[in-house]
Amino acid sequence: MFHLGVDYYPEQWPEERWPEDARMMAEAGVNVVRLAEFAWSRLESRPGQFDFDWLDGVLELLGQHDIRAVLGTPTASPPPWVMDMMPGAYRVLESGQRQTYGNRREYCPTHPGYRERCRAITEAMAEHYTEHPTVIGWQIDNELGGRCYCPICRASFQSWLERKYGSIERVNGAWGTAFWSHVYTEWSQIPVPLQAGGVPNPGLDLDYRRFMSDVYVSFQQEQVDVLRRLCPGQFVTHNMMGFGFDQIDYFDLADTLDFVGWDVYPRTAWSLDRHVDGLASALGGDTIRGLKGRGYWVMEQGSGSGGWQTVGGTPRPGEMRLWTYQSVAHGADGILYFRWRTAHHGAEQYWHGVLDHHGEPRRRYRELQTTGAELGRVGERFVGAESRARVAMLLSYDSRFAFQGQPNHSAFDYSEFFRSYYAALYRRNVPVDIVSPAADLSGYRLVLAPALHVLPAAVADNLRGYVGGGGALVVTARTGVKDESNAVVDVPLPGLLADVCGVEVEEYDALPTDAEVPLEVHWQRGSEEGCSASGRLWCEVLSTTTAREIATYEAEFYAGRAAITLNEFGKGKTLYVGTFGDAALHDLVVGWALEIADVSPVVVTPEGVEATERWRDDQRLLFLLNHADESQEITLPSPMTDLLSGRGPVERVKLEPKDVVILEQD
Q1: Given a cut of 70, is residue 281 above it in pLDDT?
Q2: Residues forming a β-bridge with 533
Q3: Average pLDDT value for residue range 101-121
Q4: I need a surface site. Which of 53, 583, 590, 612 has the fewest CB within 10 A?
């Protein structure tokens, strides 16, 4: 069954409204709801005084309509009495300021007392609902994240370091604490990298970011362990925040979950652009799917204008349906809309749901009905369908964390750099898996490794084996600069990948933000003929060892020197791009790389139409998604069946603005 649902907050509404909500949900095709992730004060009004009667009543009503439930552990937003018990549990920000009560996620994830209260409420809920026929699974907390710098975290960090390094001497050696005379003699001397403390040691800074990531992983795991023990027949997930969130290593966080959930908001008050091109949601979906290499659930799919103090643009007609099928196209096996009804009170009064404040069915509800009816007919075909991407991109959280502390250039952003290379693949309709640098790469024809700054030996060996075995690899500037301790390596860059790339970096130049250095391209290929490109922000002067030059700089003191090279290594090839460049350069490089790797688009489409695919055994599902504001026509590579309309075989399809066509081919 494909699970289609909503996020429901009955504790915020009169009880007499609940039957009407359940009826309307069922009539819209809803078969699952998420409940209780912000209901701790209703579930436990005082320490140990649990009240499940109201939630039992909601579940009974939902069950009468064959609607199942996912329960959230309510630990993202504690009641006042919890924090009154332990004032030291408030999170300390990087500025050194301690938070106070009144928002959500004010807690320190390391605090033992807070963790004890979280285990207690989770255990009480699990014991009560372990065999409930309506409850099918659990969501841990809500959107975990937020680093803490309190004294408890400092002491825990020191213990974490002792377990990792074993001796204070090894810490000093790894971090190079002789610099500025920071040699530690006791674990208790090691600080946390507060913003007010100036520039921290890079080794300390990276390890603290790793530590806080591990803290959230262990925080989640405590609740996972309770649920595994008491509710073995129910799944466990967590709603992550896609590619854009950069404080937790999501590969680690996903490890022990049954599947990954995430939250998708294409339109919010923080971006009032009228046109949503689909790129951010596609990248998020591919990232989430790559965490475990299989399908996921969307625990919060945007259904109305999002905003807190201000109001975002509302979804255009057809966009709710379009966003739903885009999530399905990138791996979703279940989708829940946030939220069922827009709240009357609280910080999210302006975060609109399927229903507006008045609770009456309007346009967005009718669009949910349409989508629900379609998924009721064909949704089962999508469940378990897999991606078979031939291209992978390596997402390195170590590099991401290191760049947060030292971006290298004031205008460089690792996430934006990664997104720009992804965009060049997305615009071509080339499916992508976002994977860990330690992943098995043998099934991919092409791997892109943007700014693999922190390069452990095991990752270098993984890439060396991949290229040597016949793979095509793209490596960029600022790769191999740091070892695992965030220390700069003492060999010519790109360090451990120098032989794979066939180059050495003689020197590098950081450019003014608005400057660019034109490139002369010596290697015109196919559709890229006549192209031009420029280097921006960062230029590396390359000396070739076994590689050949394919682009050189045309200005600065390094005019005529290599900027981009191609190397043959073993049975494979490596493109080395020695400048950050811009979207035009990244598009050029990706075009070259796809030709080298012999990777073709899913199908060629007009601008604004996204094409991607999923597979069930030998059956291909082709998704065509029109993000444009005008109608588009696409000629198919072969006759296929229109899954939603039942028409077929068809060889040409027309998509209206914001329309979706899903095609099936044996």
Answers
A1: yes
A2: 519
A3: 96
A4: 53
In this predicted structure, the answer to whether residue 2 has a pLDDT above a threshold of 70 is yes
The yes-or-no answer to whether 3-145+210-381 and 391-597 have a common fold is: no
CA-CA distance, 6 to 31, in Å (whole number)?
9
595 is catalytic: no
| Contacting residues for 656 by C-beta, under 8 A, at least 6 apart | 318, 626, 631
Angle at 552 between CA 547 and CA 557, to 5 degrees: 120
Work out whether the CA dihedral 432, 435, 438, 439 comes out positive or negative.
negative
Cα distance between residue 659 and residue 185, in whole Å: 65
Q: Given 3.30.413.10, 3.65.10.20, 3.30.465.10, 2.60.40.1180, which CATH number is that of 609-665?
A: 2.60.40.1180
pLDDT at 621 over 70: yes
Give the predicted TM-score (pTM) of the model: 0.97
Question: Is 300 considered catalytic here?
Answer: yes
DSSP states of 535-579 as a string?
Answer: EESEEEEEEESS-EEEEEE-SSTTTTSEEEEEEEETTEEEEEE-B
Compute the half-sphere exposure of residue 327: CA atoms within 13 Å on the CB side of its CA: 31
User: Catalytic one among 106, 143, 319, 613?
Assistant: 143
Write the DSSP string, 130-182: TT-TTEEEEE-SSS------SHHHHHHHHHHHHHHHSSHHHHHHHHTTTGGG-
Count Cβ atoms below 10 Å from residue 219 Cβ, excluding itself.
Answer: 23
Q: Average pLDDT for residues 463-477, to the nearest whole number?
A: 98
The single residue of 300, 319, 374, 549 carrying the catalytic annotation is 300
CATH node for 391-597: 3.40.50.880
Tell me the HSE value of 543 on the side-chain side, using a 13 A CA sphere: 7
Residue 575 pLDDT > 90: yes
Fold of the CATH domain 3-145+210-381 = TIM Barrel (3.20.20)
Tell me the two tokens of residue 289: 């799917």
Domain ranges of the chain: 3-145+210-381, 151-197, 391-597, 609-665
**By the 8 A CB rule, do 308 and 348 touch?**
yes
Q: Is the pLDDT of residue 14 over 60?
A: yes
* Cα diameter, the chain: 77
245 φ/ψ angles, rounded to the nearest 5 degrees: -85, 130
Q: Exposed, middle or buried: residue 601 (CB in 10 Å: 0-12, 13-18, 19+)?
A: middle
CB 545 within 8 A of CB 504: yes
- The full DSSP string for 424-483 is HHHTTT--EEEE-TTS--TT-SEEEETT--B--HHHHHHHHHHHHTT-EEEEESS-S-B-
Q: Is 241 helix (H, G, I), strand (E, B) or coil?
A: coil
- Which is it for the CA torsion 438, 442, 443, 448, positive or negative? positive
